[in-house]
Amino acid sequence: MKPLKTLIRKNLLEIEPCVHGGDVWTPARRRGLRPEEIVDYSSSINPLGASLTAIEAAAASLTQTAVYPDSNSTMLREAIANHFGGINAENIIIGNGSTELIYLFTEAFIQDGDLALIPQPTFGEYAVAVKKAGGRVKPFTLPSNFKVEPDVLIHEMAGAKILFLCNPNNPTSILMSQNEVTAVIEQALDRDVLIFIDEDYIEFVADEASASFVNKADKYANLFVLRSFTKFHGLTGLRVGYGVAHEELVSLLSRVKMPWNVNCAAQAAAEAALRDEAHQTRTRMLMRDERAFLARALSKIPGFKVYPADANFFLINVAETGYSAPELKERMLDYGILIRDCSSINGLNAEYIRVAVRTHTQNMKLVEAFEKTVQRKR
After folding, report:
1. pLDDT digits (tens, 9 = 90+) for 40-69
2. Percent of the residues in the chain that have a pLDDT greater than 70, as a whole number
3. Predicted confidence (pLDDT) at residue 330 exceeds the cutoff of 90
4. Are strands 223-228 and 313-317 parallel, antiparallel or unpaired?
5. Is the torsion defined by CA of 27, 41, 272, 243 positive or negative?
């Protein structure tokens, strides 16, 4: 038989898998710790976890494990539509986490040689999805302040079929205003460019309603808005996300979506999470207070350049501490804290780390551990 690498699609040989935060398992094994002994600042998840209502709903749904889940996630789509009020269930598609929908959208629209514009640094799976579908990535490096200038972005759209925008952006935590994004969408509409907006972290921003495009998605034929229950709602291990778009776009994607892609527990938990408004309010209050606390505290650490954060995480340049990001990550594990080394992210390097916003007690320990670690170099 021929070597397998001569039989596989050639474009797949060029793909390297993304490195993500949230891997507490590897350092735990290496250091002889239990995963729960490590405080995970490398993934930006609700520090309060999932709501008890959602957990109870997931548990109750397990009586349905001998039955196929609803392949259309009908009740969940209706719950999401009711939650927002400005869209219908027909504007919504459910995925096995938001990442499935990145790949579904890309494989549906990218053909061999098609170009996708991706600002960098940003979430790495967009580029992998484009390459997997046979497309080409046009990277667009953001300026040193990591802010997206709409006019520059519009200029860079020339020749692209899809523009990926993460808003607020991961890993920079910077939010584009609704007016800025609208200008890009309308120019893209005239140029037949599809706009993929990833709003996975938007529920953490100070004013979600004035920034989100969920209730505007049906107004633009070229717009797809991605949301998730992973981050804000803390249903990380259940894998459920959703996309909002014009009915025709959703209908096209639904034709090629994997059947039974979201299990019964995930669907039930997501519905319940939307109902638990008290948990959502607690999360927003915690985020408001702790984001402000960390912004002040981290900025006082010698050698830290802390970028402004709109989401639930901070990007930090640590070059002046004398540590590289991989070195600092390893030293913080001495305190049972896992941070995100950003050296694997296109557009960044070994000078950058990312840390999530967690509870006040945890955040105080994070700051103390950073202070002690940085002091060792001085």
Report:
1. 999 999 999 999 999 999 999 999 999 999
2. 100
3. yes
4. unpaired
5. negative
Sheet harboring 162-166: ordered strands across? 92-95, 241-245, 223-228, 194-198, 162-166, 115-120, 136-141
pLDDT in tens, 152-177: 999 999 999 999 999 999 999 999 99
Instruction: Tell me which residue range forms the domain holding 315.
Output: 4-49+278-375
Q: Quickly list DSSP for 255-321.
A: HHSPTT-S-HHHHHHHHHHHH-HHHHHHHHHHHHHHHHHHHHHHHTSTT-EEPP-SSSEEEEE-GGG
**CA 120 remoteness from chain centre:** 14
The pTM of this model reads: 0.96
Instruction: Determine the Cα–Cα distance for residues 353 and 323; give it in Å rounded to an integer.
Output: 11
Task: Say whether both 27 and 113 belong to one domain.
Answer: no
State pLDDT tens for residues 223-280. Answer: 999 999 999 999 999 999 999 999 999 999 999 999 999 999 999 999 999 999 999 9
- Which of 151, 192, 144, 197 is CA-nearest to residue 175? 197
User: From CA 269, how far away is CA 83, in angstroms rounded?
Assistant: 15
Residues 140 and 39 in one domain: no
Look up the CATH number of the domain holding residue 17. 3.90.1150.10
Per the structure, how many domains does the chain have? 2
CB 327 within 8 A of CB 290: no
The CATH code of the domain that includes 222 is: 3.40.640.10
Token pair in block for residue 90: 């027909």
Give me the pLDDT at residue 378, please: 67
Residue 35 in contact with residue 28, Cβ under 8 Å? yes
Looking at residue 137, what DSSP letter applies?
E
**Cα–Cα distance between 240 and 99 in angstroms, integer?**
9
Nearest by Cα to 272 from 233, 243, 304, 241: 233
- Give residue-wise pLDDT tens across range 276-308: 999 999 999 999 999 999 999 999 999 999 999
d(CA 54, CA 355): 26
**DSSP strand E in 145-293: where?**
162-166, 194-198, 223-228, 241-245
Residue 17 confidence (pLDDT): 87
Q: Last residue of a domain, which of 216, 243, 276?
A: 276
| CA–centroid distance for 147 within its chain | 18
> For residue 205, what pLDDT is reported?
97
Look up tokens 């007016």; give the residue. Answer: 179
